[in-house]
Amino acid sequence: MKHYRAYCFDLDGTVYRGKEVIPTAIQFIHQLEDKQLDYFFVTNNSSKTPSQIKQTLQQFGLNVSEKQIYSSSLVTAKYVKKHFGQAKVFVIGQDGIRYALQQEGIDIVEENPDVVVMGIDRKIDYEKLTKACIAVQNGATLIGTNEDIKFPTEKGFHPGNGSFVKLVSQVSNVEPMFMGKPSPVMLEMIQQEYGYNKNEMLMIGDNYDTDILCGIRFGCDTVHVNTGVVNTEKVKEKGVQPTYCINDLSEFEL
C-alpha cells in the first residue's frame, strides 16, 4: 500500500461507534504516532466543540490537539460569516455548532432569522422543527451542517441531522445547503493550512456517501472500512470505487 503524509479519519463508525471504541482504529493511529506521521479527524458531528471531541478521544486513549480536529460546525460557521455577514441566525443544534457560530461573532436569534442552521440536536422537538419550517417559508436560507441520514452507535443506528433537515426542507418546499462531507471543504482546509499535495493525503471512513465521496471529490485516495454505516458489499456496487476496501484498519499496511 502507498505511503501518505496526512491520514484523515472520520469518527463515528470509523474510530468509534457511540461509546464503543473500534480497537483496530486506535491501534492504527498509535502506529501513525510511532512513525511520526500526521493525522486529522474530519467529522460531520456538529454536536461537540473541538475541546469536547478531544476529551472523547482521550477516553479512547488518543491524546490529540484541537488543531487536528475539523468539524462540520467549523465549516458551517465560517461559511455563514463569509456569505451572510451580519445575518440573524436561528439554530437547531448542540454545543458544537453554537460555539462555532459564536466564535465567528454571528447573531443567534429565536425570531425572524435570515438563516436557519441545523445541526444534530438530541433534544429536538416539534416546536423547534415548526419554528424552522416557518422561518424558511418566510424566506430564511436553510443550511444543514451535514446530510447524514443516520449514524452508528453501540446499540444500532440513530437518526442523523440530514433526516431532520430533510423534514424541514420537504415541509417548506426549499432545497437546503449542506456544509459537511461529502463536500470536500474540510479536506481543502487541511491542505491549505499544512501545504500537502492531494496525492499525499488519505481519507478513511465507513460511509461511502459522505467520507468516501468527500475524498473522491477532493481528489485524494480513500479507504473504506467495514465498521460502520455502509458495508463492503454495498460499496462494491458503486460506480466509483474507493482506492482501498478493507474490513478494518488492521488490514492496512503502513
From TrEMBL:
Keywords: Hydrolase, Magnesium, Metal-binding. The active site is at D10 (nucleophile), D12 (proton donor). The keyword Protein transport does not apply. InterPro entries: HAD-like_sf, HAD-SF_hydro_IIA, HAD-SF_hydro_IIA_hyp1, HAD_sf. Mg(2+) binds at D10, D12, D206. It is an enzyme of class 3 (hydrolase). Divalent metal ions. Mg(2+) is the most effective. One of its GO terms (molecular function) is phosphatase activity. Belongs to the HAD-like hydrolase superfamily. NagD family. This is 4-nitrophenyl phosphatase. It comes from Ureibacillus thermosphaericus.
